[in-house]
Design goal:
0% strand; 130 residues; mainly alpha
Length: 130
């Protein structure tokens, strides 16, 4: 039951962040607002993507591992959603400022994989979920 309540909270905040992102998208002109408008846009899209990716990963885990397996691996799934949305938002930020190149994409992907592998090793060393 605790896992279901956690998922309800994640769904609620994902929908709330989607509504916030849509309102920022429609109401804030990034050219007029400057760096603050870009930061608002990227921050709200990050929170929405983190929740949405986490929910998709939990749905896959629930299907293939069952509810007990998805519940046990929720921390790992949330971490992966956070890493993937950080990767996407960093690419959006680089694109906004005209600094996106193919090697930025590859380097960001390598950093995301390195962070995930490091987190898994630390988790295995501690004997728990990090």
């Amino acid at each position: 039951m605790k896992f279901q309540k956690l998922l309800i909270g994640v769904r609620f905040f994902t929908v709330l962040s989607l509504a916030t992102w849509i309102s920022v998208f429609l109401l804030v002109d990034p050219d007029m607002a400057g760096i603050v408008g870009v930061a608002l846009f990227l921050g709200t899209i990050f929170s929405f993507l983190a929740g949405a990716v986490t929910l998709v990963l939990v749905a896959f885990a629930n299907r293939f591992l069952g509810e007990a397996g998805a519940s046990a691996s929720f921390h790992m799934l949330f971490r992966q959603g956070f890493i993937l949305s950080s990767y996407v938002v960093s690419l959006l930020g680089l694109s906004r400022f005209g600094m996106l190149a193919w090697w930025n994409v590859a380097l960001g992907f390598a950093v995301a994989l390195l962070v995930e592998v490091t987190a898994r090793r630390l988790s295995a060393r501690r004997g728990g979920d990090l």
